[in-house]
Specification:
Blueprint lengths: L35 E6 L3 H13 L7 E4 L27 H7 L11 E4 L4 E4 L2 H10 L18 H16 L1 H6 L4 H23 L11 H17 L14 H11 L10 H11 L65
Parallel strand pairs: 1-2
Antiparallel strand pairs: 1-3, 3-4
Helix pairs in contact: 1-3, 1-7, 4-6, 4-7, 6-8, 7-8
Protein name: Glutathione S-transferase
GO molecular function: glutathione transferase activity
Keywords: Transferase
Length: 344
């Protein structure tokens, strides 16, 4: 499977299934607890957003989750982590089957996150930017007591502005560098990435969070790229002006979030590294997965609380990770053998 086209810059296929699951069901899919299944891979930064938001809002029971393995082929993500290699609820081996159930002629990306309608086995949506916003705005009847306001109305214009720049230059920017098919395309993406990271560092120097004094959707979206930076993007994608750990403000900011319940406890560094280094064979033909970096550095003190701010606003942290959803020990420094993830 090839991700790089010689002589061309990377262009992401953004033709998503944009059907929405809403409180009023206007697209034919009303919010109903237990009806849908959120399919993710812990390796994927776009899916990681949905995992974090679901956990922060306490939607684990209302929206059950299926976790695909970290490695896929040209056909699809697979449920190789489950007994018999099938999702126990959907009964399928490959996520591709749920896309084809929706549209037998489907010719776009088989992506995660995807929300599947369990009664029909069909994918409803894979529109990852909208999925997390709808979890905040449409699933409110099923939020846990104390759930934070991740997309408050008074801050939405600011959040949207930050998200647009972060997506263009950082979230997708690392891919535009890593999958560049020419030196010029690579250097263009590289410059935009680090110029944006410099601006974000300036913004976060005196502010604990990106918008306002609490965690918002903007922090979730930046975090999922930052947490993969040193493990993958710095070397594998040649985003190597500096490591994250060499950018003091962003490194402290990322560790602050990592140590916040709902963020770091969703991260599986083993899955992240195996996905990128094994799937992108045109970039890493040997298939060697790096042993480092040492993830224990994510637990070092960050000092960001001195900036003030209230992580969950008037709300409260999420409780322990539900049984069966914890990242395996050895894949995350927050998780110890025989225990649930530590609460920071």
């Amino acid at each position: 499977m090839s991700y790089v086209t010689s002589g061309r810059e990377f262009s992401r296929d953004e033709r998503y299934l944009t059907t929405r699951i809403t409180a009023d069901g206007r697209d034919g899919f009303p919010v109903e607890p237990g009806r849908y299944r959120l399919v993710v891979s812990r390796a994927c930064p776009w899916a990681n957003r949905a995992i974090i938001v679901r956990r922060l809002l306490g939607l684990e029971e209302a929206l059950p989750m299926a976790v695909a393995g970290p490695v896929h082929d040209e056909r699809s993500w697979t449920f190789d982590l489950d007994p018999g290699g099938r999702d126990p609820v959907l009964g399928i081996e490959r996520l591709q089957e749920a896309y084809f159930a929706r549209d037998p002629g489907y010719d776009r990306g088989i992506t995660v996150p995807a929300v599947v309608d369990v009664p029909t086995g069909q994918v409803v949506t894979n529109d990852f930017p909208q999925i997390t916003l709808d979890l905040s705005l449409e699933w409110t009847a099923h939020h846990r007591p104390g759930a934070p306001a991740l997309y408050p109305s008074e801050l939405r214009a600011q959040i949207d502005s930050v998200n647009e720049a972060v997506y263009r230059d950082v979230n997708n920017g690392v891919y535009r560098a890593g999958f560049a098919g020419s030196q010029e395309a690579y250097e263009r993406a590289y410059r935009r990435l680090f110029e944006r990271l410099d601006r974000l560092s300036e913004r976060l120097t005196g502010s604990r969070y990106l918008v306002g004094d609490t965690i918002t959707e903007a922090d979730v979206r930046l975090f999922t790229t930052l947490v993969r930076f040193d493990a993958v993007y710095h070397g594998h994608f040649k985003c190597n002006r500096h490591k994250l750990s060499e950018m003091p403000v962003l490194w402290d900011y990322a560790r602050d979030l990592f140590q916040t319940p709902g963020f770091g406890d969703t991260i599986d560094f083993d899955h992240i590294k195996r996905h990128y280094y094994l799937v992108h064979t045109d970039i890493n033909p040997t298939g060697i997965v790096p042993a480092g970096p040492d993830a224990r550095s994510w637990l070092a003190p960050h000092g960001r609380a001195a900036l003030g701010g209230r992580p969950f606003g008037d709300g409260t942290p999420p409780g322990p990770v539900p049984p069966g959803e914890a990242v395996p020990p050895g894949h995350n420094p927050l998780v110890r053998e025989g225990s649930s993830p530590l609460m920071g």
